[in-house]
Amino acid sequence: QVQLVESGGGLVQAGDSLRLSCSASGRTFSSYAMGWFRQAPGKEREFVAAISWSGDITYFADSVKGRFTISRDNAKNTVYLQMNSLKPEDTAVYYCAAGRLARAILMDGASRLADDYEYWGQGTQVTVSS
Question: Distance between CA 61 and CA 49 in Å, rounded?
Answer without folding.
Answer: 6
